[in-house]
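User: structure tokens for this one?
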Amino acid sequence: MTETTERTLPQLLPWHEEVAAQLRKAWTANRLSHALLVQGVEGLGQQVFAAWLACAVLCDKSTGSTLRCCGECASCALFAAGSHPDLLWVAPEEDKQQISIDQVRAASERLTKTSYRQGYKVAIVDPAHLMTPSAANSVLKTLEEPSPRTLLVLITSQPSMLLPTVRSRCQKVTISRPSREQAIAWLREKSGRAVDAALLEFAGGAPLLALAYADGRFDALNEHMQKSLGALLAGQADVTQVAAEWEKDGLIERLTWLDLWLTSLARAALAGNADLITFPGRSAHLPSPSRPLNISGVYSMVDRARALKSQLARTALQRELAVESWLIALLDVIGPEPAKQRA
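Assistant:
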């Protein structure tokens, strides 16, 4: 095996092993589906898993009794070089937000042609939920009338956005979150440092997403968010100022932080914890509310944060105004008690 091949061939992540074993069993029994829907939350390495599977299916040494990416054959060398003629990876084109019908048709047509290496042909669509409606309808024909020795892999973190008819015609392969212990151990190995459990919680239990923030980005975000909220609650910053600051940099990340922070706030209040305003697992930096906490109001802000995050991902919003509105509602729930009410 060449040094280049060793570096560039995909390797299964520890939490992939269970689903990989299931597919190996199906391969050995000659029952591997022609279409797989690889699903799971962002940050679990669905793309890595799909790449390994494609490499293994195309590998010259994957016989009827074994499914592996050997790293030694000509097929693996082509895969490592990114030039395997029987593999097509379909993603949104540059400056595009969706996968077009022309892209899907080209992939479907390629799957009907003869294999260059007399083996399997593989097409990967990533992320599948970004196919246009016409593209999704077009892929149905491939799902309903598959060519021999072909594999179509759809990758998604949002399976509910796919057509039910597309989902029903694919074998579902769900990549699950690893245990906290497994994730922390993997993160420690990859980052070379101790990993705060709060970082993994911020990443929703997804190790690859957590790894992206393990270089200090999470600590900086956490510190800045608590500073911003502290100034807002103390009357040292106004809603317009904070909204403008948040909108310019990492708004989606900030909404994720707020989601987890508010959920932690509500849970801590229910448990009778006095140190309410903090990120999970961290010491309190902000004062506790000056009035009894409205738990249902806090959870309504969680819902609004999630809705805003979803809207930002799908539609064009006046972002700063949307954040201002959210912050005004937040102050109504946890801000200082109005002077009239105190009197």
